[in-house]
Every structure is written in structure tokens, then in C-alpha cells.
Amino acid sequence: MHSKFASRVNRVKSSETREILKVTERPEVISFAGGLPAPELFPIQPIQAASNAVLEENGAGSLQYSTTEGYIPLRTVICGRMKSIGIESDINKVLITSGSQQAIDLTGRLFLEEGDTIICESPTYLAAINAFKIYNPSFVEVEMDQDGMIMEELEDQLKKHPETKFIYTIPDFQNPTGRTMSRSRRERMIELANQYDVLIVEDNPYGAVRFAGEAIPPVKHFDTEGRVIYISTFSKIFAPGLRLGWICADELFIEKYVALKQSVDLHTDSFAQMITFKYMELYDIDAHIETIRAVYKDRCDVMLRCIDEFFPANVAHSVPEGGLFIWVELPKSLDSRKVLEECLKNHVAFVPGAPFFPNGKGNHTLRLNYSNMNEDRIVEGMRRIGEVLRQQIG
Ligand code: PMP
């Protein structure tokens, strides 16, 4: 029966993170593996009130088929929120998607042909690599430092690969590194994209979750020629289970995205869209985001302190100003998969870094998530990882 599968299926494996997440569902496991928001912060009662209001006011409408583009009041609110961070748009430039993951998947469908070149940060978001891999592109990785993708290297790669379709970037508190691209690099990225006539896919799920440093406008803010496709989501500021994301791009692109989305799912869940809009009408989502920021800041601080206290001195790590992740680079002699094996015996988990490099490297790296465990569990889990590292470093 295996011969029946399309050959592209063989390029897609179930993500390593998902496999580890299965193990970490056991309650005794302290998990820094997933990218899960803090469940205790979900505004359950307000969402219940918003759901009741939707059902009372427009029950049939919320349960009926609706337009592919998405619920107009929600798109209008999204335009307002993007304006406040420096993106000018209107509802014709916004398409609501089933999570930003669908926006990434549609981006692959829209642009990629076999053998196309994508430029991305090294490392980058695993589920984007997998979504794009279906089309068998070649991934050109550009090195990063603490200020994000290095522009001299980007320019070198654009010279070598002038046929590049798009640059895929996560500028704010990147997954997996937690690093943020500086303002001047964002401006330079736009200049280079204009010069080499490539698109930029800006995947920005974490921008609103900044808890330190100065806010930097999204890459799309600097866009002069309509070549940035901006993707974001309610997952990290509201509730990922509702599966609400969006794409903001010029109409030329949105029309094509809409046509593709029609054959995928007709439209995004109407009820979820209406609940989210109603929540924002009845409650202050910015106050809610403030709470998320404060909690994540404390958790991140605790985790950073634990690295200093429990990890060997020759371990390097990022210092995020927001988002959900810290990136760790172990001495090159260590394999983080082996470290993980030992850690799982001690009921603590993280994600090895290698899968985040599309062309394979980074065996000594790993990603830690701090949003999903309380401070006591962070301390205990980090102590256990520290013990394993000290044993393996010897
Ligand atoms: N992009 C990045 C960089 C992510 O980290 C995630 C989620 N972890 C997504 C997109 C997808 O998020 P969602 O589909 O929940 O909006």
C-alpha cells in the first residue's frame, strides 16, 4: 500500500517536537519542549461570556458557512491593531486563516515550485520548514547573531541565488532562538529585497509579547514596494485552540490566497472569529496581553538565572526580550539528543535544536520554552537538566 503515497509525502515527517510532546503529556514530566502558552492565563470566563453573547445575538450566523476572507468586524479590528504597530492596511488586505500555520502552508502552495530557493534564518521554525518541504525547495540558511539575520550574509546569498522566491523571517523573539532583528537590519532587508526583487514572508506571532527593551516596528512597516507578506496570530495573545491567524498583504496576493484557501477549508471557523471579536468588544485584550507579558518575563528571568546557576559555564544562550523561547548552545562535543534521552529518564524535556536547521546541523543546540511551566517547576526542571549536562561534560 505504501507505493500509493505521493512521493512528496516521503519528504514530510511528523515533527520531532510533536513526538516529544506526546511523552511530555504525562503530568510528572517537567516540559520545556512545546511552544505552549500558559494555560492558567486563558480568559475562560470572558470567553464563555463572549460565546454566550455571540449565540444570543447572532447564533445562526455564527454557526453558518461564511466568507473565505473572514468576518469583517474582526478584520477591521486587526487593521486597527496593525496600524498601532506601524502597518497601514485595509480589510481588503487582510485574510483570516486557521492559525498562522495555515498562512504558512498557503504561502508554500502559492509560491513554491520544485527546486525553488527560500532564504531563511539559521535555525528557523520547524513547522515552516516542513510546510515548505512538500514542494522540494532548496533552503539557503543565513547565519544569525544576537541582532537576528546577518545582512552581509543575506546579501552574499542573494548574489549567489538571485532567483530566490522569498526570504522567510521571524523578526521578533524568533522561534527557536528568541532573538530579535534590529531596526537597521529590518530596513536593510527591505533594501536588499527591493534590489534583488524577492518577496519577504514575515512570520510574526510573538511581536506583541515583548517584556523588555524597545519595541521595533515589523519588517512590513518598512516595506516600500508591497513585497512583504505579514503573517500573525491570536495564538500567543489569546487562545491557540481557537486557531485564528491572519495574512496582511497587497490585494494582488490576498486574492490568490483566498482562491487557494477555498479549496482547503472554505473559510476559518466563523464561531471562533465572532467570539474573538466579541471578546475584544467586551474586554480589554491589551490588559490581558500585559498580564501575559508580566508572567512570561518572570518565567524567562527565572530560567535565565537557572542557566547561570545550574548549567556548566561553557554553555552559551540567548537572552530574549519577549516571546516564549531561550536557545542554548552546548559545547560542540555534546549531542543534545543524547542529553534529552538522559533528561527524559529524569522526567524533564526540551527540544533538540538540530531539526530547526533545514540542511542539518546544530547537534549541540537545544530550545527551552519558559511559558508553560510555573516558576517552581522551571527551577526544578533546570536543576535536573544541569545535573545531566555536568555528568555528560564530565
Ligand atoms: N510561526 C511560528 C514562528 C510559530 O512559532 C508558530 C507556533 N508555534 C506558528 C507560526 C503557528 O502558530 P498558529 O498556527 O497557532 O498561529
TrEMBL record:
<dbReference type="InterPro" id="IPR004839">
    <property type="entry name" value="Aminotransferase_I/II_large"/>
</dbReference>
<keyword id="KW-0032">Aminotransferase</keyword>
<keyword id="KW-0663">Pyridoxal phosphate</keyword>
<dbReference type="InterPro" id="IPR015424">
    <property type="entry name" value="PyrdxlP-dep_Trfase"/>
</dbReference>
<dbReference type="Pfam" id="PF00155">
    <property type="entry name" value="Aminotran_1_2"/>
</dbReference>
<feature type="domain" description="Aminotransferase class I/classII large">
    <location>
        <begin position="48"/>
        <end position="385"/>
    </location>
</feature>
<dbReference type="InterPro" id="IPR015422">
    <property type="entry name" value="PyrdxlP-dep_Trfase_small"/>
</dbReference>
<dbReference type="InterPro" id="IPR050859">
    <property type="entry name" value="Class-I_PLP-dep_aminotransf"/>
</dbReference>
<keyword id="KW-0808">Transferase</keyword>
<protein>
    <submittedName>
        <fullName>PLP-dependent aminotransferase family protein</fullName>
    </submittedName>
</protein>
<dbReference type="InterPro" id="IPR015421">
    <property type="entry name" value="PyrdxlP-dep_Trfase_major"/>
</dbReference>
<dbReference type="GO" id="GO:0008483">
    <property type="term" value="F:transaminase activity"/>
</dbReference>
